[in-house]
Amino acid sequence: xxxxxYFKDLVGQEVTVELKNDLAIRGTLHSVDQYLNIKLxxxxxxxxxxxxxMLSVRNCFIRGSVVRYVQLPPDGVDVDLLHDAAxxxxxxx
Amino acid sequence: MVVGLREFALRTGDGSPALDESSGEELMHVxxxxxxxxxxxxxxxxxxxxxxxxxxxxxxxxxVAKGYAVDFLSISLHAVSRDPxxxxxxxxxxxxxxxxxxxxxxxxxxxxxxxxxxxxxxxMRLVPSDSTQLDTLFDVFCECAELNxxxxxxxxxxxxxxxxxxxxxxxxxxxxxxxxxxWQISQSPTSVIGHSNGDESIAQPMLEINDxxxxxxxEMVHENETKxx
Lengths: 93, 229
Description:
The complex is a heterodimer.
Chain A: H1 2-10, E1 14-19, E2 24-32, E3 38-45, E4 59-62, E5 67-71, H2 79-90
Antiparallel strand pairs in A: 1-2, 1-5, 2-3, 3-4
Chain B: E1 5-7, E2 27-31, E3 34-38, E4 47-52, E5 55-60, E6 67-71, E7 75-81, E8 91-96, E9 111-112, E10 115-116, E11 123-128, H1 134-147
């Protein structure tokens, strides 16, 4: 639940989602659900060589299970806050 | 569960696809007059798109033996594509997860000996003749994707299922029945000294473990240091 809450707060920010198949997509985080499925707006493909067909899509839905990681904006992350929240959640608090 | 795209030709009397009602599969949306383009191949039409709670089925209107299906569990992403420079018609673009075959030299090879291997298809476009339906289709895809989260395995690779571990605080010592504190403490960025693991009878507020099993009783025993072990 922690990451779901965390991503909800990131809505509206620019993120780059890298999928397990190496495709990287940059876009504005539109929404996220409890399975960390991600909807992006204003998407553009970071590596245009591998998947050129994707250049044009404006919005897309990405299955949570295929996400390798999500690059967050450097000033969009309060590391200490996240750290404390993670520990609290781990303790069941 | 089948990964990837596959042939599908099970039809009922009225031409609609036969669903697995015993598992609760329901038809969510039907879109007639949809063409399908697999990978780099040219578009196939005419056909009808059936969207169920479990999968996506395209059935050819012209050839009753031709049809394709892919589980939503295999659809990595979907999007509305409207740029005419990228593709001539507005369509729903989807990426399909494929089984990675390590023996394959060329991962993009879909055809060998002229026979199309559907399970290697990574991209699929659905082109409705009515492009005003694209947003509706996109939303239905989103809905169905959300209905199909990754199945949680009872005894999967992780013993604790999907529990995330953030620090050694969370490591399970095991009821009262465990004989000794032989649990491994993983390297944790946070200090675990002085923290209990839920068993209050063992943990002390201070770091003095007066347990006779420890030899060096006169010293402060730090959990992260090992002496003669």
